TrEMBL record:
The chain crosses the membrane at residues 80-99. GO terms for cellular component: cis-Golgi network; Golgi medial cisterna; Golgi membrane; SNARE complex. It is found in: Golgi apparatus membrane. GO terms for molecular function: SNAP receptor activity. This is Golgi SNAP receptor complex member 1.
Length: 100
């Protein structure tokens, strides 16, 4: 009879250990997320500084300003093309799905 009453206790202890392990894992994941957030924040500051310096160079040298403008136009064109390809693929996927 004593062994029968110990079984629920053992099960509860196992469950408690499993919950504790999960909580430890969650704490590790939250710590990694906080470190990632901090790294992204420092990168944002760094890229903001670089962008400011590039803008200053563009203001000083018209050739660089023209080059930056060409890069922006190319990037805008690439974004439009990529958007059109994604839209076409999505449309074909919907048509295929509806035809079945």
């Amino acid at each position: 009879m004593a062994s029968g009453s110990m079984s629920p206790r053992v099960n509860l202890l196992r469950e408690r250990a499993a919950i504790h392990g999960n909580i430890s894992h969650i704490d590790e994941v939250i710590g990694q997320a906080q470190m990632t957030r901090s790294a992204l924040g420092s990168q944002r500051v760094l890229f903001g500084d670089v962008q400011g310096k590039v803008k200053q160079l563009g203001d000083r040298f018209p050739e660089i300003r023209g080059l930056i403008g060409a890069i922006r136009r190319k990037r805008s064109k690439d974004t439009l093309i990529l958007s059109a390809v994604i839209a076409a693929c999505t449309l074909f996927l919907v048509i295929y799905w509806l035809s079945k």
